[in-house]
Request: fold
Amino acid sequence: MKSRHIRSLQDLPVQALYPLALLARAVGTDRRTLKGVFDRAGVLCFQTGGSAWVPLSEIELKVPPLWESIRAAQMLRHLMDDE
Reply:
Protein backbone atom coordinates (compact mmCIF):
# COMPACT_ATOMS: atom_id res chain seq x y z
CA MET A 1 0.00 0.00 0.00
CA LYS A 2 1.34 3.41 -0.91
CA SER A 3 0.31 5.85 1.80
CA ARG A 4 0.51 8.88 -0.48
CA HIS A 5 -2.48 7.53 -2.44
CA ILE A 6 -4.71 7.42 0.64
CA ARG A 7 -6.83 10.54 0.51
CA SER A 8 -10.02 9.32 2.19
CA LEU A 9 -11.55 6.30 3.89
CA GLN A 10 -12.60 5.07 0.46
CA ASP A 11 -8.91 4.56 -0.34
CA LEU A 12 -8.02 2.86 2.96
CA PRO A 13 -7.65 -0.93 2.78
CA VAL A 14 -8.57 -3.19 5.67
CA GLN A 15 -5.33 -4.25 7.36
CA ALA A 16 -4.23 -5.37 10.81
CA LEU A 17 -2.18 -2.29 11.69
CA TYR A 18 -2.35 1.32 10.53
CA PRO A 19 0.08 4.20 10.85
CA LEU A 20 -1.68 6.94 12.83
CA ALA A 21 -0.71 9.53 10.21
CA LEU A 22 -2.36 7.46 7.47
CA LEU A 23 -5.60 7.11 9.44
CA ALA A 24 -5.60 10.83 10.14
CA ARG A 25 -5.21 11.60 6.43
CA ALA A 26 -7.99 9.15 5.57
CA VAL A 27 -10.46 10.75 7.99
CA GLY A 28 -9.43 14.28 7.04
CA THR A 29 -7.79 15.44 10.26
CA ASP A 30 -4.32 15.80 11.71
CA ARG A 31 -2.42 13.21 13.79
CA ARG A 32 -2.74 15.10 17.06
CA THR A 33 -6.50 15.46 16.80
CA LEU A 34 -7.00 11.80 15.94
CA LYS A 35 -4.60 10.74 18.70
CA GLY A 36 -6.70 12.76 21.15
CA VAL A 37 -9.87 11.05 19.95
CA PHE A 38 -8.18 7.65 20.29
CA ASP A 39 -6.86 8.52 23.77
CA ARG A 40 -10.35 9.50 24.96
CA ALA A 41 -11.75 6.26 23.52
CA GLY A 42 -9.02 4.19 25.21
CA VAL A 43 -7.45 3.03 21.94
CA LEU A 44 -3.96 1.64 22.46
CA CYS A 45 -1.42 3.01 19.99
CA PHE A 46 2.09 1.62 19.65
CA GLN A 47 5.21 3.69 19.04
CA THR A 48 8.02 2.37 16.84
CA GLY A 49 10.76 4.76 15.98
CA GLY A 50 9.03 8.02 15.14
CA SER A 51 5.72 6.48 14.12
CA ALA A 52 2.55 5.63 16.00
CA TRP A 53 0.62 2.55 14.92
CA VAL A 54 -2.99 1.60 15.62
CA PRO A 55 -4.25 -2.00 15.55
CA LEU A 56 -7.48 -2.58 13.65
CA SER A 57 -8.77 -4.62 16.60
CA GLU A 58 -8.56 -1.50 18.80
CA ILE A 59 -10.51 0.53 16.25
CA GLU A 60 -13.11 -2.21 15.90
CA LEU A 61 -13.66 -2.50 19.67
CA LYS A 62 -13.33 1.10 20.78
CA VAL A 63 -14.28 3.30 17.80
CA PRO A 64 -17.06 1.33 16.04
CA PRO A 65 -18.13 4.18 13.72
CA LEU A 66 -14.60 4.37 12.26
CA TRP A 67 -14.46 0.58 11.87
CA GLU A 68 -17.84 0.56 10.12
CA SER A 69 -16.64 3.27 7.73
CA ILE A 70 -13.46 1.35 6.89
CA ARG A 71 -15.44 -1.85 6.39
CA ALA A 72 -18.10 -0.17 4.23
CA ALA A 73 -15.43 1.39 2.01
CA GLN A 74 -13.80 -2.03 1.58
CA MET A 75 -17.12 -3.62 0.61
CA LEU A 76 -17.81 -0.86 -1.93
CA ARG A 77 -14.38 -1.39 -3.49
CA HIS A 78 -15.09 -5.10 -3.82
CA LEU A 79 -18.48 -4.42 -5.42
CA MET A 80 -16.91 -2.02 -7.92
CA ASP A 81 -14.15 -4.55 -8.71
CA ASP A 82 -16.75 -7.24 -9.40
CA GLU A 83 -18.50 -5.14 -12.06
In short: Strands lie at 17-19, 46-48, 51-55. Residues 3-82 form one domain. The chain has one domain: 3-82. Residues 64-82 form the longest helix (19 residues).
